[in-house]
Design a protein that fits this description.
The protein is mainly alpha-helical. It is built from five helices and two strands, in the order αβαααβα. It has a domain of about 140 residues: Protein Binding, DinI Protein, Chain A. The protein has a two-stranded parallel sheet with strand order 1-2. The relative contact order is 0.18.
Length: about 200
């Protein structure tokens, strides 16, 4: 009876060792890579054009906000100067008008911010779709089992980074095998467009 039990245990152990060996082999042969998706979106030719468009819109809106704020600052200074010579009713009327314009400025700021976010999505979403499609093409061409976004992993070797290659292919290059790039070239770019803000409080 004991001999039979030993044989069963030995067989089970052999099976476990065999399964462990197969798992280790599968891990060794699995081809993986990482891509900095955000950088790829921003640094393609289309991504750079999108950033230029967003910056132009941002600068325009920021200038408008700065002008309106400067006007309100001047009005406030005038109100302060006239506070001792105007009647209480006249002064209150000017203050109320000034406060109304301040509320309008804040509303305009929120609207401009939403406008920039909407424009950013309109410009960058199609680029993101092309980047994802490019990653799939490279995976199919080179036989990658797994390609993950660099932002989702705590660490990866630099030789596993395909970001530069993805950018090249997305810009019209061939998806065939090539040297992997590192994430060091180019630097990170913010995912969101800058938000226009009043330069100073009135």
């Amino acid at each position: 009876m004991r001999t039979s039990v030993r044989l069963v245990l030995a067989a089970a152990l052999a099976l476990l060792v065999s399964l462990a060996g197969k798992t280790a082999l599968a891990q060794q042969t699995m081809k993986v890579a990482v891509v900095d998706v955000q950088r790829a979106v921003m640094q393609t030719e289309d991504g750079l054009r999108a950033q230029a468009t967003l910056k132009k819109l941002f600068d325009s809106r920021q200038q408008e906000l700065n002008k309106k704020q400067a006007d309100l600052q001047k009005q406030k200074e005038e109100i302060d100067k006239q506070s001792k010579v105007l009647s209480q009713a006249a002064l209150q009327k000017k203050v109320d008008e000034w406060q109304k314009q301040m509320v309008e400025l804040q509303t305009t700021f929120v609207e401009y911010n939403k406008e920039l976010e909407k424009k950013q999505r309109e410009l960058q979403d199609p680029i993101l779709e092309r980047i994802v499609a490019t990653i799939k093409r490279i995976a199919g061409t080179d036989g990658y089992d797994l390609i993950v976004d660099r932002a989702t992993v705590a660490f990866s070797r630099s030789d596993l980074d395909l970001t530069d290659r993805v950018i090249q292919v997305a810009n019209g290059g061939a998806p065939g095998a090539g040297s992997t790039g590192t994430s060091g070239g180019g630097g990170a770019v913010p995912a969101k467009a800058a938000t226009p803000t009043p330069s100073a409080k009135p």
